[in-house]
Amino acid sequence: MKDKITKVSIDLFQKKGFTETSVQDICDTLGVTKGTFYHYFTSKEELLLDIHLGYIESILRQQELILNDDGKNWRTKLYDVVYMLLHSIEGQGASARVFFREMRNLSDERLAEVIPKRTQFRLNIESLLRQGVGSGELRKNLDVEIVALGILGMTNWSYQWFHPSGRLSDKEVASVFVDMVLKGIESSNTDSAEASNRMLKSPG
């Protein structure tokens, strides 16, 4: 039942908004009493926190699996992270909308449980970029913090417009994104054609 409450709430929150959705709305949709709701969640905000943690912990686990693959270089890992975020829209688009749109409705105490995980996701991307700087493939004066934020800005908001059944697949959009970013921050000593070929060797 807890999973059902969460699933219905994600749908209602993305359609109506967190503030406009009441506990009664959730219960009416499920056909249960408020007592059932409060058996699993002490408040609507605790439910919102549960949704936030579920989303960020899911994509963080997937990111760490990518990062821990010793058989891939930093370029391929960067592509895989971008692809993973785009691909997750098909199954987690509603959760992403609630995550980014409704975070303002979490108290500082509850935000403190979410923010470190978001920060870790960003730091992991910075680590990949620093590997590129260290190898000489990316500019030595690169501001990796800003570039990482730029990458996240592109991918995090793609749920607003990206459709898995659209003109380009998630793999193709990921390639466009990574190609666009890397061609702007590569070292002048890097052979662009060779670098692009390495980057575009995405998983099948």
UniProtKB/TrEMBL annotation:
The keyword DNA-binding applies. GO terms for molecular function: DNA binding. Residues 1-59 form the HTH tetR-type domain. It comes from the Bacteria. InterPro entries: DNA-bd_HTH_TetR-type_CS, Homeodomain-like_sf, HTH-type_Tx_Regulator, HTH_TetR, KstR2_TetR_C, Tet_transcr_reg_TetR-rel_C_sf. Pfam families: TetR_C_24, TetR_N. Gene3D superfamilies: Homeodomain-like, Tetracycline Repressor, domain 2. Keywords: DNA-binding. Residues 22-41 bind DNA. The keyword DNA-binding applies. This is TetR family transcriptional regulator. It comes from Alicyclobacillus mengziensis. The lineage of its organism: Bacteria, Bacillati, Bacillota, Bacilli, Bacillales.
